[in-house]
């Protein structure tokens, strides 16, 4: 990468990147902040301008085409203020009163979404990405739920929770627990290997929960909460978070009492959940303000929020909480979670990044936004929870413009309709760099484009991806970014294969009974072949796979989508299955017994092949979990 430094009116100029081509031309003199052009080979031409503009030159040395963006200083300062150093972690205080801790519960609350079961390996990979993203606290799971959950939390604590990032940051690793002693023991034993271990314990405090779910009096609830915190202190846990479940519908006076008592017992963080998404932003902000004013000892702990999205207000409520003194915000990647989901990490982080300095009295976080896109992609692929196209920040339409008026504005200046660039969150906007991927493309071209798209692919992974790329390129003219992403997603974001699909052949039509012949390689290395009749070609393939694998499941969901337009488009198939094995039943944090669901996807130009491979991938995820239980 070549970098040019140009100064005008004291403002600094950013570098140009080889991803974007530069056009020849002369930068016009301007008054104010406009979109201009630059020129130069093997060097930059000094920009001319007025009003102390900041200029971003983008282009590559020795190329034709590109753009030079003149960014208004006010917009630049709002979009990318210099990020102060992250304060040293101390459980019960933050040295900088403007710093907001980000508590991610994707691996705990997020996994409670129906069909969002994750394997141990998937959880560890997501935790690594969250650490890279700069998350302060990772709630890695509910260790008491199952042996598999305990193993996952412990592994994350022992690995991700001990390995610093380049800036020295190590996330806190947290385990969830009810106030039951066995829960507390499991959580502490799972997380204590981390550099910064935390246990998060909770009990309901609303009248409706105490009466109908707990069947406890207020005194009994307070006693349970205090005893849990004291027990954790006795185990050696010095970082204790307490949540009064359904605080949004609890009587404020009871909250003052129970929170004051757990502070005396040793709690270091008080989390205020709007468990049912009932509160409005003004209402929730006022609750936080009342707690700060009325809870004895609250000045010596961190106040936190956990907002559900039942009325679509989780992000607004979280930000309202921060503006009223909360300094920890709980959220999930893509906003996944129970029912309508949780506050979305990417929405909270970008809102504070873009508006925190001016509109929120200088609030900031330690999130590194360039890793948002990859975190979103990883969670979506592993969990099987697709991101809706219009989802803020990470939806596929978040940076798309179809209206003619909008397109006209974007061509003149991207700032007309975009308050942030896709590059800010690590998403590379498709650029024609003169390279068209096809069947004659080599490994270097594929690896280069993947790197530009944000994928850091090792040689072994590249070998497999390139093999799939060549197979598709032989059938499809011109491989687009969407095609490449579908191929790489299936390889990088799918579990290790227990069974491998070798061949799938179907015969169907108006004159034939749909018949499938499937050949697979098992964990013993032996090949197995079955032929069977079904109601259709996909049903026949699934029945043949079931006959080979002999692990019965219920198919809960099946969908096929074309990645791009055209008859030769790659098909991406997603399936969700539910195991019938009793060993995969588990108890959720809310006390309900559930069966694990497993979601997987696959891609191919042949719909039957992609469907069968997706089904096999889902079965492999289930078998990997069963193997860990054994």
UniProtKB/TrEMBL annotation:
It catalyses: 3-methyl-2-oxobutanoate + acetyl-CoA + H2O = (2S)-2-isopropylmalate + CoA + H(+). One of its GO terms (molecular function) is methylthioalkylmalate synthase activity. Residues 27-47 are annotated as: Disordered. It comes from Chloropicon primus. Belongs to the alpha-IPM synthase/homocitrate synthase family. LeuA type 1 subfamily. Keywords: Amino-acid biosynthesis, Branched-chain amino acid biosynthesis, Leucine biosynthesis, Metal-binding, Transferase. The keyword Transferase applies. Pathway: Amino-acid biosynthesis; L-leucine biosynthesis; L-leucine from 3-methyl-2-oxobutanoate: step 1/4. This is 2-isopropylmalate synthase. Residues 36-47 have a biased composition (Basic and acidic residues). One of its GO terms (biological process) is L-leucine biosynthetic process. Pfam families: HCS_D2, HMGL-like, LeuA_dimer. SUPFAM superfamilies: 2-isopropylmalate synthase LeuA, allosteric (dimerisation) domain, Aldolase. HAMAP family: LeuA_type1. InterPro entries: 2-IPM_HCS-like, 2-isopropylmalate_synth_dimer, AIPM/Hcit_synth_CS, Aldolase_TIM, LeuA/HCS_post-cat, LeuA_allosteric_dom_sf, LeuA_bact_synth, PYR_CT. Its EC number is 2.3.3.13. Residues 100-373 form the Pyruvate carboxyltransferase domain.
């Amino acid at each position: 990468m070549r970098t040019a430094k140009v100064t005008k009116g004291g403002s600094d100029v950013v570098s140009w990147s080889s991803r974007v081509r530069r056009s020849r031309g002369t930068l016009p003199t301007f008054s104010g902040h406009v979109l201009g052009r630059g020129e130069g080979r093997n060097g930059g031409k000094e920009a001319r301008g007025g009003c102390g503009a900041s200029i971003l030159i983008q282009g590559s040395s020795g190329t034709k085409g590109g753009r030079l963006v003149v960014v208004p200083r006010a917009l630049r300062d709002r979009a990318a203020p210099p990020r102060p150093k992250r304060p040293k972690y101390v459980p019960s205080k933050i040295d900088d009163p403007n710093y907001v801790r980000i508590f991610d519960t994707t691996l705990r609350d997020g996994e409670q979404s129906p069909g969002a079961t994750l394997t141990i390996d998937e959880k560890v990979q997501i935790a690594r990405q969250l650490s890279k993203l700069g998350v302060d606290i990772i709630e890695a799971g509910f260790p008491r739920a199952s042996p598999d959950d305990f193993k996952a939390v412990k592994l994350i604590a022992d690995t991700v929770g001990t390995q610093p990032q380049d800036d020295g940051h190590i996330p806190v690793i947290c385990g969830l627990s009810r106030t039951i002693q066995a829960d507390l023991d499991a959580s502490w034993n799972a997380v204590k290997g981390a550099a910064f271990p935390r246990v998060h314990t909770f009990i309901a405090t609303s009248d409706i929960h105490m009466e109908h779910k707990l069947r406890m009096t207020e005194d009994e609830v307070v006693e349970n909460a205090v005893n849990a915190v004291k027990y954790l202190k006795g185990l050696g846990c010095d970082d204790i978070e307490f949540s009064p479940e359904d605080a949004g519908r609890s009587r404020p006076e009871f909250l003052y009492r129970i929170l004051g008592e757990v502070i005396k017992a040793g709690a270091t963080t008080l989390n205020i959940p709007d468990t049912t998404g009932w509160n409005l932003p003004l209402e929730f902000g006022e609750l936080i303000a009342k707690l700060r004013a009325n809870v004895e000892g609250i000045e010596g702990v961190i106040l936190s929020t956990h907002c559900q999205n039942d009325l679509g207000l989780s992000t607004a409520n979280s930000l309202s909480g921060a503006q009223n003194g909360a300094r920890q915000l709980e959220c999930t990647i893509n906003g996944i979670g129970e029912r309508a989901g949780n506050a979305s990490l990417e929405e909270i982080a970008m809102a504070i990044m873009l508006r925190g300095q001016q509109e929120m009295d200088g609030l900031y976080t330690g999130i590194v936004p360039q890793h948002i896109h990859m975190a979103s992609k990883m969670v979506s692929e592993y969990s099987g929870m697709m991101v809706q196209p219009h989802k803020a920040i990470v939806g596929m339409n978040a940076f798309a413009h179809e209206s003619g008026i909008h397109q006209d504005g974007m061509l003149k200046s991207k700032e007309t309709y975009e308050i942030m660039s896709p590059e800010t969150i690590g998403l590379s906007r498709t650029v024609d760099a003169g390279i068209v991927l096809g069947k004659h493309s080599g490994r270097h071209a594929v690896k280069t484009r993947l790197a530009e798209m944000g994928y850091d692919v090792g040689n072994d992974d590249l070998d497999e991806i390139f093999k799939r790329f060549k197979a598709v390129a032989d059938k499809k003219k011109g491989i687009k970014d969407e095609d490449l992403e579908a191929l790489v997603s299936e390889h990088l974001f799918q579990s290790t294969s227990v069974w491998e699909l070798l061949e799938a052949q179907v015969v169907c039509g108006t004159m034939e009974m749909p018949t499938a012949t499937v050949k697979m390689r098992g964990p013993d290395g032996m090949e197995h072949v079955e032929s069977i009749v079904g109601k259709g070609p996909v049903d026949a393939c699934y029945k043949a796979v079931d006959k080979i694998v002999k692990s019965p499941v219920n198919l809960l969901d099946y969908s096929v989508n074309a990645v791009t337009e055209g008859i030769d488009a790659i098909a991406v198939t997603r399936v969700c299955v539910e195991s019938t094995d009793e060993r995969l039943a588990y108890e959720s944090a809310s006390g309900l017994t559930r069966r694990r669901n497993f979601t997987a996807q696959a891609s191919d130009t042949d719909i039957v092949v992609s469907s069968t491979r997706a089904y096999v991938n889902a079965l492999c995820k289930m078998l990997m979990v069963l193997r860990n239980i054994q």
